[in-house]
Amino acid sequence: MSDTMPSLRRLSKFYSEIPSSVDTITAALNAAGVDPEKPNARDLYERDLDCQNLGAYAMLERIAAVAAEDGTFGSDEVVLDIGCGIGGPGRFLADRFSGSVVGIDIVPQRTEIAQSLTDLTGMGARISYRVADATDLPFGAGAFAQVWMLDVGIHIRDKRALFGEIARVLQPGGLLVMHDQMGPLPPAMRPVTRRAPFIAPSLPQLLRYVDGAGLRVQTWRDTTVHVLEYFDRMKTALTKAPPQARGDTEGRWWQAVINGYVETLAKLGGRTGILTARRVGDSDRTVVALPGCA
Ligand SMILES: C[S@@+](CC[C@H](N)C(=O)[O-])C[C@H]1O[C@@H](n2cnc3c(N)ncnc32)[C@H](O)[C@@H]1O
Q1: What residue's CA is closest to ligand 1, atom 25?
Q2: Distance of alpha carbon 155 from alpha carbon 216, whole angstroms
Q3: Residue 63: CB within 6 Å of ligand 1?
Q4: Phi/psi of residue 128, nearest 5 degrees
Q5: Is the C-beta atom of 51 inside 6 A of ligand 1?
Q6: For residue 247, what are the CA distances in angstroms to 97, 134, 141, 191, 260?
């Protein structure tokens, strides 16, 4: 593993503090009038219960629409969901398309929760999980038609190894679909950056990593405005929480996180976006110039 043990410990602690246990999710389903023993995948993802990407379910729809511009995948194809978290995006994919999904995450508790939720939704035949580091994938060359990676790359220091592994496990012509925040990250982001590894390249740097791995960029779609809308929704939800929950340590931390993202993205030039790239052969590499990415 290229991530050091201290950064894995920080990452595990960071994600264990995000309230996303199977119990809290089934309680939320119950409160919404859904049978918590037999939910559909969409009962979870449409309520943002299992999507921990920037923008949650609404962003999944956007990302899927952008990916569809590059073609969809068939029933015999497999998608790798890197940094699957508790599995929302993977279940969304399996629900929407006919192929199957393999989710990997470096934090074991995350794949355990993902597996439990997938079992609950009855999708276990088409979705499986492994604990693995994205910079050292336990799969053969060309194993996947698509690789999805939503808001994960930002945690990974060794970008060369990350994109090298993605290119290796993609079939020739296979598609990378990713979403992430671009750097540099200003001090406003400290509420999160002091708790977990956050290493964000600028967009031109990211494009160089992607291209250098043998992936040809197809699309870059800025999503900053939509991520800001998401943080607005979070802010509103937090103001509706009981005063005690808003005032406790966790409530104050969430407030600081939301303010940090909003300041970064609305005032300090921060950007988020969707990137798609296709794996090409070694003889077919070019650096693609995209608007606004000098
Ligand atoms: C913001 S969450 C996104 C989870 C999921 N993609 C989603 O959208 O719901 C980032 C995830 O990346 C995982 N992660 C971070 N570094 C990783 C690595 N080196 N290999 C695999 N997963 C990693 C974290 O454990 C976490 O679950």
Answers
A1: 107
A2: 23
A3: no
A4: -130, 165
A5: yes
A6: 43, 37, 50, 16, 18
- The string of pLDDT tens digits covering residues 163-187 is 999 999 999 999 999 999 999 999 9
Mutate to test the pocket of ligand 1, among 105, 133, 151 (most ligand atoms within 8 A of CB): 105
| Predicted TM-score of the model (pTM) | 0.94
Decide: 48 in ligand 1 pocket, CB within 6 A.
no
pLDDT in tens, 192-238: 999 999 999 999 999 999 999 999 999 999 999 999 999 999 999 98
Q: Which fold has domain 4-224+271-279?
A: Rossmann fold (3.40.50)
- Alpha-carbon distance 71 to 216, whole Å? 15
Edge-to-edge strand list for the sheet holding 215-222: 127-131, 100-105, 78-82, 144-150, 170-181, 272-279, 215-222
243 CA to middle of ligand 1, Å?
31
What share of residues in the chain are helix, strand, coil (percent, to 5)? 45, 15, 35
pLDDT of amino acid 74: 76
